[in-house]
Amino acid sequence: MQAFEYLQRSGLLDEYGDISAEVEHIRRGLTDYLQTASGEVHWQFQVPELGEGGACSLFGQLAAEPYSLLPILGGQTPANQLALSKLSAIAGYYREYSGQDWFGIYQARPNVDAEQVLVKLAYYGAPSRPEFPLNSEFAKISNNSTVGLSGRARVINSVPDYLAAGGEYYTCDPKVQAEACLPLFDQSGKIAGIVDAEHFQQAIFTSAAMALLVAVCLVVPEYLP
């Protein structure tokens, strides 16, 4: 998918204008970087305890057992190892050039209970929820699920203002002041997952910041397992 089509489909064109030239420039640099780059693979990671009903994470309280990607990905195959290595490298690249405090790459796929979810494959930052249900009920409180179902980006440059206006928000880390949740599309145009970027300051998602994040969104689907 080309940058201009992505901006149209995700709904970002109206808000940020035609930044496709900037996106494509960054995309080429990231693609070249990934020819040789690889990142550290984490098959399991610590996750927060979930609150009542699983609706909210209990920040600062970690579950006794880490989350493992092995069941949902079908094992530690060479293909999965390579995919996670590249996704980890993308997360590292984004961290270096964005300055965002938290970032995650999620793929849409059925979990071990045959429920459609967004599963976190690579990230940096504080421990966070590993799976988000992909259903209309959970989307009422989750930007991740909303974007994963709709394919429309959601950018919140001020979480306090968003909440004051009546917006629903899944709070994992109370320090987060701004969030950008963008869809991923596969070659057929189907929603393949999302990326989520968060910052502890407001008004951080400028046109330049979004060009980098959109470029990431165009590259990630090539490496999903």
Automatic annotation (TrEMBL):
Q: Which organism is it from?
A: Arsukibacterium tuosuense
Q: Name one Pfam family in it.
A: GAF
InterPro entries linked to this entry: GAF, GAF-like_dom_sf
- What superkingdom does the record give? Bacteria
SUPFAM superfamilies in alphabetical order: GAF domain-like
Q: Which residues form the GAF domain?
A: 97-217
This protein is called GAF domain-containing protein, putative methionine-R-sulfoxide reductase
